[in-house]
Amino acid sequence: MIIAIEGIDGAGKNTLVRAIRERVDADVLAFPRYDVSAPAQLVQEALHGRMGDLTDSAYAMATLFALDRHGARGQLEPYLDSDRIILLDRYVASNAAYSAARLRDDAVMDWVHDLEFGRLGLPRPDLQVLLATEPDTASQRAQSREQSDASRERDRYERDAGLQQRTYDAYLRLAGQGWAGRWLVTTDSDVILQEIANITQGL
């Protein structure tokens, strides 16, 4: 089973992943994979202002994010039709939400879907969970994290409060239309665990 945990920066994705793992035997993979992926490393450089005008193009950035995930496709495929579970800290929906927020146009959501699930052949998730953390709260968390950990300097996207709000709204639209499959909108790990059980039982 592939479960994607989605949300804006500071929403609490990592905390939720840890809470689920305390009660379910699951592997974890976080995107972007900055430590091992060349496309992700280019994204990181761009978001910290070291790649010229690359971030000006929403489509260029979205393509790099997509190529990072494509590089992990072999890691994800064994979880299809399996009793093994992997929790993804961000997945394809993050690309759709952030791109739509940047362009202020939901049409790009279909482009991301076709690029990642179609052309790049990424497996669709069994469940997508949107952490319903209000943008103001998430922003405060991101700022506190930056102040307490020098390695967690906020990038260009994280510093843009308007972008974070538009991204959260885009996520809500994705969840509302059932984009790329099943969604939950919650912050409650118990609700997520019950949904995992329902899927496992074929409900």
Describe the structure.
There is one protein chain. With 203 residues, this protein is an alpha/beta fold. It has one domain: Rossmann fold, CATH 3.40.50. The chain is built from 9 helices and 5 strands. The protein has helices spanning 13-21, 38-47, 58-70, 73-76, 92-103, 107-119, 135-148, 161-176, 189-200, and strands at residues 2-6, 27-30, 86-89, 127-131, 183-186. The chain has a 5-stranded parallel beta sheet, with helices on both faces. Helix 2 runs antiparallel to helix 3 (58-70), helix 5 (92-103) runs antiparallel to helix 6 and helix 5 (92-103) crosses helix 8. The longest helix has 16 residues, at 161-176. It is globular and about 50 Å long. The model has no long low-confidence stretch (mean pLDDT 90).
Number of strands: 5
Strand line-up of the largest beta sheet: 2-3-1-4-5
SS summary, helix count: 9
* Unreliable segments of 5+ consecutive residues: none
Going by CATH, the architecture would be 3-Layer(aba) Sandwich
Elements, N to C (H/E):
EHEHHHEHHEHHEH
Please indicate the percent range of residues in DSSP E strands (runs of 2 or more): 5-15%
The N- and C-terminal alpha carbons lie at a distance of: 14 Å
Fraction of helical residues: 40-55%
C-alpha-based Rg, rounded: 16 Å
Q: Using the coordinates shown, work out and report the CATH topology.
A: Rossmann fold
| Tally of structural domains | 1
CATH class: Alpha Beta
* Major β-sheet profile: 5 strands, parallel
